[in-house]
């Protein structure tokens, strides 16, 4: 239970801090909010909820520019490391399960700066 509270507080902080950034830019708060419903799957596997896939689709649609995609990649890597327990194989499979084409591999080894 304490872990869930910590995750909620972390995500809330990211969402609230998003207001400090340029609204036009894709923020880490946006990324976290879009993928919040995926957290159970990313840690435990199983089935992917419709809400999770809607978040994946929303994130993909929001990442319109190269910089947006790089920022989203960096945020995903940072947040996964902070949360701990995110299964890399589940994360890599998520776009395909949601039928969303992500133009780069979801992995901790992805070089976010090389994303076009």
From TrEMBL:
Keywords: Disulfide bond, Lipid-binding, Signal, Transport
Gene Ontology terms: biological process: lipid transport
Pfam families given in the database record: Tryp_alpha_amyl
PROSITE patterns cross-referenced by the UniProt entry: PLANT_LTP
Name of this protein: Non-specific lipid-transfer protein
GO molecular function, one term: lipid binding
Domain named Bifunctional inhibitor/plant lipid transfer protein/seed storage helical: residues: 28-112
Function: Plant non-specific lipid-transfer proteins transfer phospholipids as well as galactolipids across membranes. May play a role in wax or cutin deposition in the cell walls of expanding epidermal cells and certain secretory tissues.
Originating species: Salix purpurea
Alphabetized Gene3D superfamilies for the sequence: Plant lipid-transfer and hydrophobic proteins
Signal peptide: 1-25
Family under the similarity heading: Belongs to the plant LTP family.
Keyword Signal: yes
Family matches, as CDD domains: nsLTP1 (cd01960)
